[in-house]
């Protein structure tokens, strides 16, 4: 892939404008630039951003950090606004990307339901931030009896998040916030049947794999890890997780949305002793990779999620999309 690709040139042009900003806090100009960046990267594209020239790789790495910083400011801004209401959760729609979180949480829950038959009692979300929308949506809409432990290294983020949940009589009893670096959490990780890892925990490949290796070491055998990744040009916005790097886990499925939901979803299972023996004997199953065709959005997932149970159909979808 050459660096003169029109999409790459546009991304680099936006990077120059974004990196020259004095502040990444929400403003009309900041919002416009990031909206232009997202609209540039969202359309399905076969580009492999990990194989671009060195100069563009450096820009991509810096751009992901800038996107992460801007996202943090945006969430803090709206968390403060929502926290000013008597019942903050009644006003979540004020967050401009709330619909995307509804779709992403529904997608993740639908995929999870295909691969986990265990009755969930306690899950963890790593990197919950000041506006823990995924945890809130999952707890309210999909997991009404499950306890949620939210981990974030930022004390102020946890204080803001707790303020949003505390007035709710249900979630205030089921959602907990821990001021912890997940790398310092060890034996407690065995308490969770499912752990969700936010896209911006580990902003580059080395940091991401360090966290994943830590989770692999301390998670309960057979527990599920839900990871967020990116595909195609969306890799300019978020770190990409290569399923081949997920040692210690069995990759169950990889899903690449093609609509306004930016993050890909990877679901893996912590290997058991029996799994290791099977691997040593050369017995393993390839992950199911689903890339919906142009007529399929995450709104359709509840209708066609059973495709994940049929590898041939999933593979066909992927091949058709890549060749179109």
In a nutshell, what does this entry contain?
By secondary structure, the chain is an alpha/beta fold. Helix content is 43%, strand content 13%.
Note down, in words, how this protein is organized.
With 324 residues, this protein is α/β, with parallel strands linked by helices. The protein is 43% helix and 13% strand. It contains 11 helices and 8 strands. The protein has helices at 6-19, 28-41, 54-83, 98-115, 133-142, 155-165, 171-174, 205-218, 273-280, 301-304, 311-323, and strands spanning 122-126, 147-152, 175-179, 194-197, 224-229, 249-255, 264-270, 288-290. It has an 8-stranded mixed sheet. Helix 1 (6-19) runs antiparallel to helix 2 and helix 1 (6-19) packs across helix 3. The model is unreliable at 291-324 (pLDDT under 50).
The helix tally amounts to 11
Radius of gyration: 19 Å
- Strands of the biggest beta sheet: in what spatial order? 3-2-1-4-5-7-6-8
The beta-strand count equals 8
The share of residues in helices is 40-55%
Mean pLDDT: 87
Strand content: 5-15%
Uncertain segments are 291-324
Largest sheet: 8 strands, mixed
**What would the principal axes of the Cα set say about the shape?**
globular
Q: Which CATH-level-2 architecture of the largest domain?
A: 3-Layer(aba) Sandwich
Output the CATH topology of the largest domain: Rossmann fold
Reading off the top of the CATH hierarchy, the class of the largest domain is best stated as Alpha Beta
Could you spell the SSE succession in H and E letters?
Answer: HHHHEHEHHEEHEEEHEHH
